[in-house]
Amino acid sequence: MANTDRQLDRRLEQAIVDLLERRAATASICPSDAARAVYEGDDDGWRTLMDPVRRAAWRLVAAGEVEVTRAGRPVTEPEAHGPLRIRRAGPR
């Protein structure tokens, strides 16, 4: 993996964590929130970051930091399709 890819990965992971820290403990974010936070343009180019954001979220899931949810329930990566949200990991 190129150094710039690792930098992007870290920026996306940090964006997810930062966005969640600014919200209530039980709140969630849309993966597009993180993509928009990291994207440096003012057009729809953030959409190209959606797959990298999802990968970043799954790395954070593996680290025990977040959960990926659908309809308010945690899902595993194979189950993840449709509208997804990201929230802090922990008891609900």
Short description:
This protein is α+β, with helices and mostly antiparallel strands. It has three helices and four strands.
Number of spatially distinct domains: 1
Strand content: 5-15%
Overall pLDDT: 93
Query: What is the CATH C-level name?
Result: Mainly Alpha
CATH architecture: Orthogonal Bundle
**Basic shape:** globular
**Could you tell me how far the N terminus lies from the C terminus, measured between alpha carbons in angstroms?**
36 Å
Residues in helix, %? 40-55%
Structural class, by secondary structure, is alpha+beta
What name is given to the CATH topology? Arc Repressor Mutant, subunit A
Number of helices: 3
Low-confidence stretches: none
Give me the secondary-structure topology.
Elements (H helix, E strand, L loop, with lengths): L2 H19 L6 E2 L1 H8 L11 H13 L3 E5 L2 E2 L10 E4 L4
Antiparallel strand pairs: 1-4, 2-3, 2-4
Helix pairs in contact: 1-2, 1-3, 2-3
Q: How would you describe this structure to a colleague?
A:
Strands 1-4-2-3 form a four-stranded antiparallel β-sheet. The protein has helices at 3-21, 31-38, 50-62, and strands at residues 28-29, 66-70, 73-74, 85-88. The mean pLDDT is 93. By secondary structure, it is an alpha+beta fold. Helix 1 crosses helix 2 (31-38).
